[in-house]
Design goal:
The strands form two sheets. This protein has a six-stranded mixed sheet with strand order 1-2-6-3-5-4, with helices on both faces. Strands 7-11-8-10-9 form a five-stranded mixed sheet, with helices on both faces. The protein is built from 17 helices and eleven strands. The chain starts with about 35 loop residues before the first strand and ends in a 30-residue tail after the last helix. The protein has two domains: about 230 residues, Metalloenzyme, LuxS/M16 peptidase-like (Cytochrome Bc1 Complex, Chain A, domain 1), CATH 3.30.830.10; about 190 residues, 2-Layer Sandwich (Cytochrome Bc1 Complex, Chain A, domain 1), CATH 3.30.830.10. The longest helix has 20 residues. It is an alpha+beta fold and about 500 residues long. Helices cover about 35% and strands about 15% of the residues.
């Protein structure tokens, strides 16, 4: 869940000469092997450094292995609330110091909450590296646990719920309502934004305990990318983080779920929507399985971009759909740790029928199952995905965060150099296999979100709670801008960028 505003870095990175271009072939000789060095400190903190002297800047990311799945029952939204509190200051660095140091270093900072982790990022000139590492270590040690800061950020989180969910057409349908329908375990299904009631119940002891339990060095990964050598990065990590003692961390809950065995489908009303929409989700293959890469490539083929199969068939061809959006998991499709969904968000015409739309989607999936994908189309798709992957690893802050996430979720940041081979190794037969296993009716969950005026007056699906007087937006009590989305069609926890 994006929680903080983001400004533009004053100094732009020089493009590394070894980046693959969009038209470059996927041959092994064209691979860009990222420099990745890792070391684990005695207290359990894993440090990942990617050396790149193409500009005098650095990206920093601290990823904690705690997220929405880990938050306590009856404290929904607490992982996200705590992410806000991490910017409220410490006994050594009061509120505002973190931003001031980052801005004085020519950069910016951000934070985001996901199901499996919470990430914090900074980008700045290399001269700001040591002050920023000191600040990150300082808030890893402790925070200024005050009722004032808790109440301030509780109000900010409530405002995000108002902006992104309650007062948006289709609010929460894909990122909170669909998981509730698709998953059976509470850890995977509950609303990561949180209920107002649960947020109001959170007290200082909850905040202090959450930091103690989940924000220790042994539950974190520090990523540094840019104008620094591994030896320098490791030495600085030891200098600022090495003396922080490891802390006992609660056992990770069992979140594994099998594929669904019967379609789940409901209708919901929406007082704010003008067009009906379908949120469709299928459970994904487990992270790291042989089916993960083919499923990611299949998702690109079906619904990413105007050239995708579903866009051409449903929007350009039959005109059954008005718009199609797609996403996998809550950020990068390579960065999920537990069960996640491949999701389509499709708006359609008021005179359209959900059954017709679903039938058209099934037809495109069945075509892949029966016929596969021709070599030229598949190679072009993979080449574009490789170019996108390398392009996404160029900004130092993105690279630092990605490597830290991969280390936290996979246990190995060097997976970043395997992903291009995983993409390039996908075959037409792989796509046929995963389409037939995962994109099936039994594994499918569907929410048909319709404007209330398209429902009968006595239809129980009408959005009664949305017709009631909406709570007044909570006034943010800090100088941070609350980041809102134009519509809740992407995961609320979709990352910082």
């Amino acid at each position: 869940m994006t929680s903080r505003s983001k400004t533009t870095l004053a100094t732009t990175s020089v493009i590394a000469g070894c980046l693959i271009a969009a038209t470059t072939s996927a041959a092994t000789s064209d691979r860009w092997n990222l420099p990745i060095a890792t070391r684990t400190l005695a207290n359990g903190l894993v440090v990942v450094v990617s050396e790149d002297h193409s500009s005098p800047t650095v990206g920093i990311s601290v990823v904690y292995r705690v997220g929405i799945r880990t938050e306590p029952r009856n404290r929904t939204g607490f992982a996200h609330l705590f992410e806000h509190l991490m910017f409220e200051g410490t006994p050594n660095a009061p509120q505002g110091i973190f931003d001031r140091v980052t801005n004085d270093g020519g950069g910016d900072n951000n934070g985001a909450t996901h199901p499996d982790y919470t990430s914090y990022i900074e980008q700045a000139l290399v001269s700001a590296l040591e002050p920023l590492l000191w600040l990150e270590a300082d808030r890893m040690k402790t925070l200024a646990f005050t009722l004032k800061s808790l109440n301030n950020q509780r109000d900010v989180v409530k405002e995000e719920i108002n902006v992104n969910v309650r007062n948006q057409p289709y609010g929460g349908v894909a990122d909170t309502e669909l998981p509730k329908l698709a998953f059976s375990k509470w850890e995977n299904a509950h609303d990561g934004y949180g209920s107002f009631d649960d947020l109001d119940k959170a007290g200082i002891d909850d905040v202090r305990g959450f930091h103690r339990n989940f924000y220790g060095p042994n539950n974190a990964v520090l990523g540094i990318a840019g104008d620094v050598t591994p030896e320098q990065g490791f030495a600085l990590a030891q200098k600022y983080f090495g003396a922080i003692p490891a802390r006992e961390t609660p056992a990770r809950p069992d979140v594994d779920e099998p594929l669904n065995t019967a379609e789940k489908r409901i209708v919901q009303g929406d007082a704010l929507a003008r067009l009906p929409a379908l949120a469709v989700g299928w459970k994904m293959p487990p992270r790291g399985s042989n089916d993960q890469a083919p499923m990611i490539v299949l998702g690109e083929l079906l619904a990413t971009g105007d050239a995708s199969r579903l866009y051409q068939a449903l929007v350009k061809g039959s005109a059954l759909a008005v718009q199609i959006e797609t996403f996998t998991g809550s950020g990068s499709p390579w960065g999920y740790g537990g069960p996640t969904l491949y999701t389509l968000m499709i708006t359609y015409k008021t005179d359209g029928k959900a059954d017709a739309l679903l039938a058209a989607i099934d037809q495109q999936i069945e075509t892949v199952v029966k016929e596969g994908v021709d070599p030229a189309t598949l190679q072009g798709l993979k080449t574009r995905m490789l170019a996108d992957w390398y392009d996404g690893m160029e900004p130092f802050v993105d690279r630092a965060e990605t490597l830290a996430i991969l280390q936290a979720v996979w246990g190995d940041a060097k997976v970043a150099n395997r992903i291009p081979d995983l993409i390039d190794g996908v075959t037409s037969a792989d796509l046929q296999r995963v389409a037939g296993i995962y994109l099936t009716h039994p594994n499918r969950s569907v929410i048909d979100r319709r404007p209330d005026d398209l429902l009968a007056p006595d239809d129980p699906a009408r959005s009664e709670k949305r017709d009631k007087a909406k709570p007044a937006p909570a006034k943010p009590a800090s100088d941070k801008k609350v980041v809102g989305k134009p519509a809740a069609t992407k995961p609320a926890d979709a990352g910082t960028k």
